[in-house]
């Protein structure tokens, strides 16, 4: 027997509150203090020009959600907590929206969404925008799986405006529908061009920093949990002294990873759509998004633990739509915590090998699920209405 909707909502709320409390204990030491907070403080003290000059790359979230909260004059910690609430609500809503019949499966699914340890990593790192982007992106694909195109387009628009990496959810959502709906693609892209482009045009310097604004370059941060690690070069002593590590990205690699991540999303998505045929299980679009999210992490030289939040949420949604307990999502969450928290290392080959030890099998499982069999060997499993 499952859990009543009211009880699921109460549990999701409790998980979200716990995440908020635990994830906002060290705001001063996170990226929020050095990335978003200067723009908010500048807006409050010096006006819009200073805000636009200091706004970080995820300017959609900072402009639409973060900026209005600064006028409440609540200080660093409480401004951060207010910024985290939309993402926490989205996580809780996603957890409640999952269809799980068994009580233990429902509890596990709620903990892995509304109370996700990977979401805690995002908050602890100072990135509340990642919660909203990941939850809305997975919810958008899930809505498409359930043939709700307009809701999917709205959720994906929120996701892309929260963070640009959510664009990886657009093709899985569009291809999950009986006929790909342009609104699922057009609405998020148009909104992103309007908001991100508008901020870029208005900020001092205009379009000169457009590549950095849209995240086209990987930058110099170079962490061992990615496939490019063996190509790293010694970093500048000043860079190392600032705590960024003794290894950095070679110059030739800097412009490659992010365009490559986007470029691979198109053939992978179209291959699934063609290979599975008209009788494809719609819920496998969530597995496709999980694969694209995993690809993003493995190919990003700046990879960190909380980058995997879309992956974990997509796995939870996929497994529950398949009427399975979310054990793959649970194992992935454990592997992420072990890799990035318990045994975190940033030198040598061991961190990369430990990371690849679970990401490669996970990627292989997803590839096999999506591409190993054609439509003639597969049975359409209708999603929940």
UniProtKB/TrEMBL annotation:
Keyword field: Membrane, Transmembrane, Transmembrane helix
TM segment ranges: 54-75, 82-100, 106-123, 153-177, 184-202, 256-274, 352-371
Domain of life of the organism encoding this protein: Bacteria
Protein's recorded name: DUF2029 domain-containing protein
The organism of origin for this protein: Solirubrobacter ginsenosidimutans
